Amino acid sequence: MHEPASPTTSKLQYFNRDQGWIQVHERPCPFHSQTFLDTMQEMVLNPNYNTSWILRADILLDSRSDDISEELSCCSLLKEEERTYVLAPEFEMRGFVRSRTVVRRFIPRNPQRDKATNQTCLFFEERVEDRVLGNLKTLVVYIAHAASTEELPYYLPAVKGVAFLYEETPGPIEELESIQKISIHYLLFTPSTIESPGMTTRLERTALRLMDRIIKVGNGSIRGYEKKVHHDLVVPRERSQDTYLKLRVRHAKRLMDSWVEKTDPKKHVFEDILIAAFLIELWEDMYRSGKGEFPGFVDIGCGNGVLVDILLREGYKGYGFDARRRMTWKIFERETQECLSEKVLIPWVLGDEMIKAAALAEAEAEGIKQLRIAAEENLQLEGGIMAGIHDGRFQEGTFIISNHADELTGWTPLLAKASNSPFLIIPCCSHDLSGDKHRHKSTVIKTGAVENVDKLGTRIGTISSEYASLVEWTATIAQDVGYVVEREVMRIPSTRNIGLIGRKCGDGEMSVGEVLEREGGGVGWADKAFALRRMQLQKGHG
Predict the structure, then answer these.
(1) Is there a single domain that holds both residue 415 and residue 332?
(2) Three-state SS across 215-243?
(3) 353: domain range?
(4) Rounded alpha-carbon distances, angstroms, from residue 51 to 57, 185, 239
(5) What is residue 165's three-state secondary structure?
(6) How many domains are contained in the chain?
(7) Which of 199, 282, 360, 423 is 20 to 30 A from 14 via CA?
(8) Residues 316 and 204 in one domain
């Protein structure tokens, strides 16, 4: 563990003015200048990796021109008074030339608490004519768009500038290797004095964390690190996050303030807001661009109903059902409550004979009059005519949401195909089509089963983890009946975060019936479903 060094007068004598830079931290590093520059670019583009207070950074300007005045004049995203921070004549340096100028806007994770703010990032290279043989210097400087600490949000260090200096010098002749080190420097808004030192423990710790991050990313780069998980392949990050921030303002407080479950409201509320934001932007691409009217949604296994409530309030028609009513349902307005129902799913594709046998057996064993009458008088069970049973028939094109729906996960692509419907599946716990818990065998990923499968977080080939096997099993069922499955690593607070999207479907290699038969025919599903429904009737919920 590296402790922050005591602040000293900075070695940044290259600046044209004596501005009072303070060196805060210095550390040897095992990589060369290009790795340093690549690392700093990663840090500039993704500040959210350094702190959870920041959602992302939007790039307002990225120029490699020596004279950015013309580009700056065309940048409508910057206010006139902010352009001086970008030109930054006082940050020009002797012996160095500016090679790149980036202006980024920090988007806070909680805009009700923190404000967005801009920052200029300057990349400098040493002038060729000023280089000393065997020595190399590179510098990156962050400039706050603020005149005082009071103008800065909490998530940024309360300084005018932060500088990262990379230096490479020759090592001992016998070792034939260079020595590299990085130092971090602050420019305070008010010059540091004995009476007012300016430096705080928080600023020192911030420098230490930044240094740790640089070394970690740089080391990963030289070791051949490749990002294993790629987000935002289906919906761009900026769109989903912007929508998330709007939904958070509109829905988070009211939902958390009225929470009646024993579970943590933050996890459930924010997770469902994130999923709602993704769906809204996905539907924007599918339906709002002259491609047809939104057909409505159904959330099967809707749980606490929060996702249904948010989508309904945002103007999307739909409904949800679950085998068990939740206490949360009663906190919603009447319009939402009318769109939530307690129903057990018995898919019609199981066939009349299997469903009839299960219904009669349940009625005979338990003597439940309601089930006996329904089974005897309406053996077809069409249209969910038996109270509390949903037969899995949906209006054609209805968008099916299957979010951590457990036993319903594998059924989702089959029911979607039968209704010619698109879907979003976020698998969770592993079951088979009989409703039993089941660990699916490790499989070899089929070419084309999942788009961009190499970015799933597992390498192409055998999938060994239980969750990855569940994801592939579900994707394969969907592919076999004709879906082109897209995959998104959802930005939700859950390790079960793979989203499978089926919005394109053609003729499959197998029919729904053939896949069902291959997967065991769903034997036992109807019996378990009727038994579950019986328990609900006995509790007086049905």
Answers:
(1) yes
(2) HHHHHHHHCCCCCCCCCCCCCCHHHHHHH
(3) 296-539
(4) 12, 19, 21
(5) strand
(6) 2
(7) 199
(8) no
CATH number (domain holding residue 136): 3.30.530
Q: Can you give the CATH number for the domain in which 363 is found?
A: 3.40.50
| Same domain for 330 and 207 | no
Choose the final residue of a domain: 200, 222, 244: 222
* C-alpha dist (Å) from residue 370 to 119, 244, 538: 68, 45, 12
Give the span between the Cα atoms of 471 and 461, in whole angstroms: 14
- Tell whether 246 is covered by a domain: no
Q: Is residue 229 part of a domain?
A: no
Q: In the numeric block, which tokens belong to residue 468? A: 């990855």
CA dist., res. 506 & res. 13, Å (int): 67
- Minimum mean pLDDT range among 14-18, 174-178, 422-426: 14-18
> What single-letter amino acid sits at 378?
N
Q: Between the CA of residue 499 and those of 64, 321, 419, 426, what are the distances in Å?
A: 38, 20, 20, 5
pLDDT in tens, 255-267: 999 999 988 898 8
Give the rounded distance of the alpha carbon of 521 from its chain centre.
Answer: 36
Q: Is 241 within a domain?
A: no
In a domain, 258, yes or no: no
Q: 31: phi > 0 → left, psi -120 to 50 → alpha, else beta; which?
A: beta
Element (H, E) at 455: none
What is the distance between the alpha carbons of residues 324 and 301, in angstroms, rounded to a whole number? 9
Which range is least confidently modeled, 402-411, 420-429, 523-532?
A: 523-532
What is residue 160's three-state secondary structure? coil
Cα separation of 371 and 361, whole Å? 10
Which pTM value belongs to this model? 0.81
